């Protein structure tokens, strides 16, 4: 009985999938919406626009970015998870929304592995541990060691900003505090750009900034102490990695990736994957992406496994740092 039921279900799924798969050859036949859960000008938004422009040229249809901000990317993710799985509503998001939010929020309304068809990563991005040297509270801080010592002398007083509760910027700051054995004060903002503004206005003492802070660093308005990845960032070769400074296991970055709703025809997912991978090889597109992070694409299968692995790793970090959200 169970076998007959499985065969019947499988036959139904096969017959209903045939028209969808056949239509994939003409995909896209209408404009495609890229839904982004973060503000215009953020790394995720910029990457979405770079890829959207490239795909519009390659595929002959408009790829339009729609910003649905709020809740650390969850509003956009919910929207796409519930969208018709036809390839015309696509999520461009970061690892926080996919591999951190599910570990912290009960009323998420999407499952990262069940409700999406992963397409590919686009870039991998380091964070930069940054201070405002004009801030009198961090006077005398010249490196990570002196920052940690300041926190040790003033427990739960030295503050770090993030793009929101549970954001990877939050996890990076919590990881530094946990590994150092000190107490630091977390101050959440509504995005990376507001956090950076908080650094500039001296509201917070440090933060793990995105690459949008590089021009401010080069202009001398912010001071970089370290990068969060295991290796140095090519655009700041003189800035050490945190892993070089007595924290060998410190390696936190975020990726920007592309997702379709679960149930999207595999042929459509594969077409998007191939087109994005080919677009990322174009020298002009690659140069624009490299300003946002390390260009990096992969197969849908490899991307799905990466998500599963990071969910396990982040779960361990969240428990170790005792991170909770309201």
Question: How would you characterize this protein structure?
Answer:
The protein has 326 residues and is an alpha/beta fold. It folds into 2 domains: 30-125 and 254-321, D-Maltodextrin-Binding Protein, domain 2 (3-Layer(aba) Sandwich), CATH 3.40.190; 128-245, Periplasmic binding protein-like II (D-Maltodextrin-Binding Protein, domain 2, 3-Layer(aba) Sandwich), CATH 3.40.190. It has helices spanning 2-23, 43-59, 74-81, 95-99, 101-104, 144-153, 168-180, 192-200, 214-218, 266-281, 283-290, 300-321, and strands spanning 32-36, 63-67, 89-94, 116-126, 128-131, 159-162, 185-188, 206-209, 223-227, 253-261, 294-295. The strands form 2 sheets. Strands 2-1-3-10-4-11 form a 6-stranded mixed sheet, sandwiched between helices. A 5-stranded mixed sheet has the order 7-6-8-5-9, sandwiched between helices. It is globular. The model is unreliable at 1-22 (pLDDT under 50). Residues 1-24 form the signal peptide. Belongs to the UPF0065 (bug) family. It comes from Achromobacter arsenitoxydans SY8.
């Amino acid at each position: 009985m169970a076998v007959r039921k499985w065969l019947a279900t499988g036959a139904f799924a096969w017959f209903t999938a045939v028209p969808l798969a056949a239509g994939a050859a003409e995909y896209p036949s209408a404009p495609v919406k890229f839904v982004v859960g973060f503000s215009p000008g953020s790394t995720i938004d910029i990457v979405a626009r770079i890829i959207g422009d490239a795909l519009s040229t390659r595929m002959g249809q408009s790829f339009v970015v729609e910003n649905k901000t709020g809740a650390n990317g969850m509003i956009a993710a919910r929207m796409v998870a519930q969208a018709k799985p036809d390839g015309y509503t696509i999520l461009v998001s970061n690892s926080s929304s996919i591999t951190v939010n599910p570990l912290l929020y009960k009323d998420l309304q999407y499952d990262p592995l069940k409700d999406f068809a992963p397409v590919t990563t686009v870039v991998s991005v380091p964070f930069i541990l940054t201070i405002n040297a004009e801030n009198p509270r961090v006077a005398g801080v010249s490196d990570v060691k002196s920052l940690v010592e300041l926190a040790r002398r003033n427990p739960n007083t030295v503050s770090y900003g993030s793009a929101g509760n549970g954001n990877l910027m939050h996890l990076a700051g919590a990881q530094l505090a946990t590994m150092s054995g000190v107490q630091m004060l977390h101050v959440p903002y509504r995005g990376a750009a507001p956090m950076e503004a908080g650094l500039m206005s001296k509201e917070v003492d440090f933060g793990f900034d995105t690459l949008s802070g590089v021009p401010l660093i080069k202009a001398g308005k912010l001071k970089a102490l370290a990068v969060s990845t295991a290796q140095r960032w090519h655009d700041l070769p003189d800035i050490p990695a945190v892993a070089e400074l007595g924290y060998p296991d410190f390696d936190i970055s975020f990726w920007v990736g592309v997702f379709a709703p679960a149930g999207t025809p595999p042929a459509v997912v594969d077409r998007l994957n191939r087109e994005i991978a080919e677009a990322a090889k174009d020298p002009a597109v690659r140069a624009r992406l490299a300003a946002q992070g390390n260009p990096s694409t992969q197969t849908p299968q490899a991307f799905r496994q990466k998500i599963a692995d990071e969910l396990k790793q982040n779960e361990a970090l969240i428990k170790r740092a005792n991170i909770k959200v309201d």
